[in-house]
Amino acid sequence: MSNGIFRAYDVRGNVPDELDDEKAHNIARAFTQWLRNKTGKKQLTVVLGRDNRLTSPLLFDAVLHGFLEEGVHVIDVGLCSSPHFYFSVLHLQADGGIHVTASHIPPPTNGLKFAGPAASPISPQQNEDGTSIQDFFEKLPKLQNNTLGSVESKDTMDAYIARHFEIFPIDKELLKQKKIKAVIDTGNGVSVLSMQSLVLQLPITVIPLYWELDGTFPHHVPNPMLPEATKDLQQKIVEERADLGVALDSDGDRIVFIDEKGNRIMSDLTTTLIAQEILNHHQGETILYDLRATHSLPETILATNGKPSVSRVGHTFIKEQMRKEHAFFASEVAGHLYFREIGYYEAPLLAFMYLLSLLSSTSKTLSQLIETIHTYSKTEEINIEITNKEGALKKIETRYSDAKTISHLDGITIEYTDWWVNIRPSNNEDVLRINLEANTEKLRDIKLQEILLLLKS
What we know:
Elements: E1 11-14, H1 21-39, E2 45-50, H2 56-69, E3 73-79, H3 82-91, E4 96-100, E5 109-115, H4 133-138, E6 150-153, H5 157-167, H6 172-178, E7 181-185, H7 191-199, E8 205-209, H8 231-240, E9 244-248, E10 255-258, E11 264-265, H9 267-281, E12 286-290, H10 296-303, E13 307-311, H11 315-325, E14 329-331, E15 337-339, E16 345-346, H12 348-360, H13 366-371, E17 377-378, E18 382-385, H14 389-399, E19 405-407, E20 412-415, E21 419-425, E22 431-438, H15 441-456
Parallel strand pairs: 2-3, 2-4, 3-6, 7-8, 7-9, 12-13, 12-14
Antiparallel strand pairs: 1-5, 4-5, 9-10, 10-11, 14-15, 15-16, 17-22, 18-22, 19-20, 20-21, 21-22
């Protein structure tokens, strides 16, 4: 059985027990057939890239041979971050592509991310037209094509970095005068390649942390959303008296910022700062955010003459909604930051440039800028094990039926005038994920305990 490796956003499993070279080979073939069905094109060109996990070369080769057996022309962009991969699909005008990565999940897990035409998001499980790569995989016919495809290698790094400066021509002279110092932790992941290329063109002082490529990720888990993953970075910022810190996950599509005091900044607060900066130059634009974000974000967007829009959680949903609403900028609480101008996908390097620009044009420190945002008392995301997820959500809706609003956009969101909560089920586990915010810390704690007791009863 292979169903467990097909998820809402990607294919993922332990190598080789759940995901091996044979499955990767056949998934590439299934993706090709799905893409032909979607595009109506017999002759396809796809982009293939990978991260630096120890098992990525094995899966990369398997995917490559699956494509070649289907007669596809493959453009090999080699080691690259996920945002760099998406850029390559768009820049090279390919029909789609596969990136071999498990994102922020540590080994022995590995996986495959998919992109369609114009780097559009593709779900292996279900897409808007009702078709899925998983369906093609489970009904995969014997190979009928007798013509092998072809492969060529292309280096798109220079074009990728140049695109950032075209989109956002940051004032380098002002940046130079400010003498900004940044500690940047790429966690031994492939994101170092694009980050290094970017900062070589910026007049700032960079202190690198864990820039050596090592697919075992020996220093910390490759997920900066976890507090233990940024401890070394936080300490280094204070030691070096740096202005800010930057942490990227192993495939470079998540970014977390640390202030000059060594404090982690929640992603929705980073989004609030960036949204302010964007709307100062592009008034009236739509800013998209996932429903877990602090209410400070839509309030700030409205106050800065922007249009707030809420989305369900998940990069495929956010990217689709961005395109529909032509949103300028979008974010997920999990550290994904998306920009329309680069192609509606994650652009952590662009987010970094916006923050550098903001710091260079003010006398305030990063912590002082955060303090200008009106904040509420918000929990981190809390996961609890629940077997009957549907029953638990009905229990919540019944208990809080007098709420100001009740939404089912993603799980259930209950909103009162002084607090709100979103509870949504995991796609693959017997787990409910809770995000709660209140006007005061006391009310937050009371409501959280109330809900936990209700769910466990």
